[in-house]
Amino acid sequence: MLDETNSGNVLVEVRDLKMHFPIHAGVFKKRVGEVKAVDGISFDIFEGETLGLVGESGCGKSTAGRAILRLYDITEGSIKIDGVEIGPTPQPKLREMRPTMQMVFQDPQASLNPRMSVAAIIGEPLDEHTDFSKKEKREKVLGLMDAVGLNRDFANRYPHEFSGGQRQRIGIARALALNPKFIVCDEPIAALDVSIQAQVVNLLEDLQEEFGLTYLFISHDLSMVRHIADRVAVMYLGRVVELATREELFRAPKHPYTQALLSAVPEPDPSLEEKVERILLEGDVPSPSKPPKGCNFCTRCPQVMDICKEIDPTGKEIAAGHQVACHLYADT
Q: Nearest 5°: phi and psi at 167?
């Protein structure tokens, strides 16, 4: 289990979370296996902080974010948000918890109803969870549009009339409508032009300060995570392999996978680019339906040992707030 030491209050507590999807085959759709998209992750998120969750495509980070918000019925584990256990809670009973936890989706075009106006999209959560009058709802919607930098005159326009960055602002305004404490940002800038990405990230930071928000920021863009996150968790094949403060992780990564991941980040200074040692990993990522025995990373690890192929390493705190799941640090 990976626990953190922090003076703040824990808002989100995840313990041994598993999200396995069944595989069916044959005429009778018999269950023949399962995809272990998330396979036992544990961490805390403190009030007012941003926890970055990074890893290559297919590692399970987006599934983890959706599972934490209980958009899926989880396979196993515990999820506490603001002290309330929601892991085993049936979907109908989660309704009263929805205002506390919201999500900003990756593709702003796909997550917005094309037949609804901006005002209707942002106001939909208010229709579902409040008894605001029509005037109160209109004032709230316009206030949210102001908060995310959208012109009030656009309230009656439709999603197709906006750019990608503007559509993402609509999604952010919708997520803020019920005054949530916790927001999962699932690669919110991945579908945007580079010129717009910084604007959206700066907006998220400003809103966090203004409304006291707590973020789980999921991304494969390490440079952006370095900019916005307070702490960073690194995932590989359904597991969290390292968790540390942003400064510590980027200064001295310990897990071989984290080291390889960070070595791939482009260096903008040409004079320094030549000095960067790239760590090239051999082979492909194993299938989450058939993870290797022992450590999930043992098939590609440049520092693999015999024990790695037999025993799955557990998370170990090697310094204050810095945890690593690797046999290299078993005796530290």
A: -65, -35
